[in-house]
Amino acid sequence: MGRAERLYPFGVIALRWLSLSAGAVVFATLAVELHTPWVGALDERARAVAMGFRSDGLTDVMQVITFLGNGWSLGVVAALVAGFEFFDRHRKVALFVVTASVGAGLLNALLKLLFARPRPDVALRLAAAGGYSFPSGHSMASAAIVTTLMLVVIARRPRLRALAIVVGSALIVAIGISRVYLGVHYASDVIAGWALGASWPLWLRPLLLVTSQSRGR
After folding, report:
1. 213 phi, psi to nearest 5 deg
2. Domain range for residue 82?
3. Above 80 in pLDDT, residue 144?
């Protein structure tokens, strides 16, 4: 347990629940309002801005970023971290990483089938993409897995908290932006993926907190 949690337990708990609630509210709002004019206007505006920045060089960069954010790339990183933690006798940390990563993927697949939102017009795309659009798999996976890894780093190396948050958040945002830039997702897909993906590991965080106080259980 961190120093802030020891000194201000109720405040920390309240902040955590506020974060969880905010993510749930953002996702639920977009899910319910998905086919309303204001969401359509948001998506159209974001698409227009993204297309205005398109260039050959930037497209190459965005394709690299979007590759880093696919399920396989992030899954390999999560598996390596989970394996290291398992063999280092932090088995609950390993379980936390696996549960957060796999759970996010399964939840995203279920939601895509539930909402069955078609992707943007293929004529607008700069990358191949299949399946449904809402919520963005890249955005949700990156938010879930990177947030999970940030929580692990913060629990294991508190001094790296600021660096982990800055680098992790920048990566999550960049991956989401790349999906809109490449024309394979709407902005609302990405925002919903961010909101739900970041909230999911926070629900599982008590598993990590228990582990940070004990080793090898």
Report:
1. -105, -10
2. 3-211
3. yes
What pTM does this model have?
0.85
| Count of domains forming the chain | 1
- List the Cα angle 155/160/161 in 5-degree steps: 65
Query: Each residue of 76-130: pLDDT tens digit?
Result: 999 999 999 889 888 888 999 999 999 999 999 999 999 999 999 998 899 989 8
- pLDDT of 142 > 70? The answer is yes
Structure tokens at 139: 């955005």
Residue with tokens 């938010």: 143
Rounded to the nearest 10°, the torsion over CA 35, 69, 171, 9 is: 80
Spatial contact of 131 and 187, defined as CB atoms under 8 Å apart: no
Backbone angles phi, psi at 216, to 5 degrees: 75, 15
Is the pLDDT at 11 greater than 50? The verdict is no
109 in any annotated domain: yes
Kindly state whether residue 217 falls inside one of the protein's structural domains: no
Is residue 216 situated within a structural domain?
no
Supply 38's token pair: 């204001």
151 near 208, Cβ under 8 Å? yes
Whether the Cβ atoms of residue 135 and residue 116 lie closer than 8 Å to each other: no
